[in-house]
Amino acid sequence: MADFSSYNRYLAVAARAVRRSLQDGPRLAAERRGNMDLRFAKWENGKQGEVKNLADANNQAIASQAESK
Amino acid sequence: MFSRAVRPAVRAGTVAATRTAPPNAANFATLREIEGRLKSIKNIKKITNTMKVIASTRLTRAQKAMSDSRAYGQTSNTLFEQAETKPLEDKKTLLVVASSDKGLCGGIHSGLSKATRRVLADNPNSDIVVLGEKAKAQLSRSNPDAIVLSFANVCKDIPTFADAQAVADQIALLPTDYASVKIIYNKFINAQSYEPDAVEAYSEEAITQSPNFSAYEADEETLSNLREYALANSLFWAMAEGHACEISARRNAMENASKNAGEMIDKFQIMYNRQRQAAITGELVEIITGAAASAE
Q1: Could you tell me which SUPFAM superfamilies the record lists for this protein (chain A) (predicted)?
Q2: Do the Cβ atoms of B150 and A48 come within 8 Å?
Q3: What is the rounded distance in angstroms from the CA atom of residue B75 to the CA atom of residue B144?
Q4: pTM for the model
Q5: What is the mean pLDDT of chain A?
């Protein structure tokens, strides 16, 4: 658990691993359920910040976490 | 020489006459206008009808996903019901508004925004997280200071658990410590009606303070995991239910739009026929009077 910043991220990684190890037929159906294409923006003092892709932001956060270790 | 010089002027005169349309052609012009309007209404009807058919086919899938995720979310909430968890009063609340990006589906987005404002008026010490462009546009006009996060691209298709997890993850990363998270979503009652409702996701403190929680003998360490997971579960439930509501509302809205377009087409068709008949009668009267005058 220590390697993950949150339980949900841990679950997401575990779920991805399971999906990728499935057989071809079920895998395609399962991977469609794993798609996530959200964009998000932080708000400060009533102003919308920069709109970012959530998956990219997560990957960057993971990468920077790995580097800092 | 003279005739050649005068000809362009004559030609210019005839062109001007056809452009300005002589007064006796007034009926003719409106006839053309009605015809154009009729055509565009017919096109609109085709479009709304197609959207209705699409929404109907998506509705069955959305409803299935909704009933599955409802069972899932309610199971997840059973723990808190059994433990009789209550939200803490004194600290900040986070409102998560589960709307979506697309319009053309009646009043479900404004219903959600109104419900959010009502909750916000009851406990002003709250922050808002918005899912979806529509509610974001509405809430950013009335309560821009309360918004802390907004998500776009939500609920394009049936929401996945990965979506809910990613949102829950971002909420967990927020700097403020919230006593409870209220997820405001549209509750699906039947295909015709839906109403804004809220599900709660509790903080660790609220969970530990709940009266019957000791019966579960849970470790302290796992509590934050439980909290995040429960938040993702509730979000997933709310998003799936909101999605089904949206599709069903869109189906109804498009059905009504098609019906109204049909009524308008009937009305314009009658008006068109009447105008045309009037124009023909007018022409006939002119011909007959002309013939009678020349016969004398």
Answers
A1: Epsilon subunit of mitochondrial F1F0-ATP synthase
A2: yes
A3: 35
A4: 0.83
A5: 81
